[in-house]
Write a structure and sequence with these properties.
alpha+beta, Pdz3 Domain, six-stranded antiparallel barrel, 6 helices
């Protein structure tokens, strides 16, 4: 991962004094040990090694030399070269595993290492680049231990959490911390709604689970902010509420159907000539917008009657519109406003763009 990549509660509730004689405030204490919880959840956590065609450089240069050697030796037996490591977790005993799209999305081969050391090749079931979620599958030799989803909407700032995964390729590791903030937008995508955590996560933790104190997955560790490349206590996890919905659709359909207009957009600030909006900077010649008559330089001011004031807002609305449905767009062109109905197309896969 780059500096900003692709990945019981301890709430000190100070009660107000009713009087000078009021009892001192009480706080819920943290666990004496995380060991019982870790023993219960770690069998569902997996390490992931991937190979893909790369040009130049050493993709494993950030790993310690000994760990780098171990991973290369493991793949050398298969006449392959490891080019990346990450984490994941089992969600079904039959072998379905959740991870990040940036871990496996472009991999030529995927190797999953279970907690007992068993190595299994995996195939991609489906990926979603906009949420950075991927679902992979191994041919399970037996029923595998699976994690359970928790309610990420119930997570509060200050809650204890445990991050599990494969930091720096070291293998199954855990770290503990608290939720630092909710709803973080780190400009990684239009669906940013991250849980910020201070539990240390590092390169290789991507795709690993974030557990609550009940041993349920409340997030998928996906990104860090770091000037050094390692943990500085600012990590980000995708909420389980979003992940579980994406995974269910990937499991059924193998992809996420997202709307697409075929335009590149840019911010247009409020001015004396009209309200703020989103400008059409370029159009795909085969896209729905061209066929509907939109032009470069047009400014979108409303979408389905709702004011549009940012590119992120517009992209999100279109992405959530099922292909085949139409949207009503108000266009400002040469000082005049008019409405256009645009049938929404299917967003191409990255390799189709």
């Amino acid at each position: 991962m780059t500096a900003l990549t692709r990945r019981a509660s301890l709430v000190a509730a100070l009660l107000p004094f009713a009087s000078a004689w009021a009892a001192p405030a009480l706080a819920r204490s943290g666990p004496d040990s995380f060991a019982p919880l870790v023993k219960r959840v770690m069998p569902s956590v997996v390490n992931i090694g991937v190979t893909e065609t790369v040009a130049g450089g050493d993709p494993l240069a950030h790993l310690p030399p000994e760990i780098r050697r171990q991973f290369r030796e493991r793949f050398r037996q298969r006449r392959e070269q490891v080019t990346g490591v990450g984490s994941g977790f089992i969600i079904d005993p039959s072998g379905y595993i959740v991870t990040n799209n940036h871990v496996v999305g472009t991999a030529d081969a995927i190797l999953v290492v279970l907690s007992d050391g068993t190595e299994l090749p995996a195939r991609r079931v489906g990926t979603d680049d906009l949420t950075d979620i991927a679902l992979i599958k191994v041919a399970a030799p037996r029923a595998l231990p699976a994690a359970t989803w928790g309610d990420s909407k119930a997570v509060e700032v200050g809650d204890w959490v445990i991050a599990a995964g494969n930091p720096f390729g070291l293998g199954g590791s855990v770290s503990a911390g608290i939720v630092s903030a909710l709803g973080r937008d780190i400009q990684a995508g239009v669906f940013d709604d991250f849980l910020q955590i201070d539990a240390p996560i590092n390169p290789g933790n991507s795709g690993g689970p974030l557990f609550n104190m009940e041993g349920q997955v409340v997030g998928v560790n996906s990104a860090i902010y770091s000037p050094t490349g390692g943990s500085v206590g600012i990590g980000f996890a995708i909420p389980a509420e979003l992940v579980s919905r994406i995974v269910n659709e990937l499991r059924v359909n193998g992809r996420i159907e997202r709307g697409w207009l075929g335009v590149s957009v840019t911010e247009v600030p409020l001015s004396t000539r009209g309200p703020a909006g989103v400008g059409i900077a370029a159009l795909d010649r085969n896209g729905p917008a061209v066929r509907a008559g939109l032009r470069q330089g047009d400014v979108v001011t409303t979408l389905n009657g709702q004011a549009i004031e940012s590119t992120r807002h517009m992209i999100k609305v279109i992405a959530l519109t099922l292909p085949g449905n139409a949207v009503r767009i108000t266009i400002r062109r040469q000082g005049k406003d008019f409405e256009v109905s645009v049938p929404v197309g299917r967003r191409p896969k990255p390799e189709e763009n």
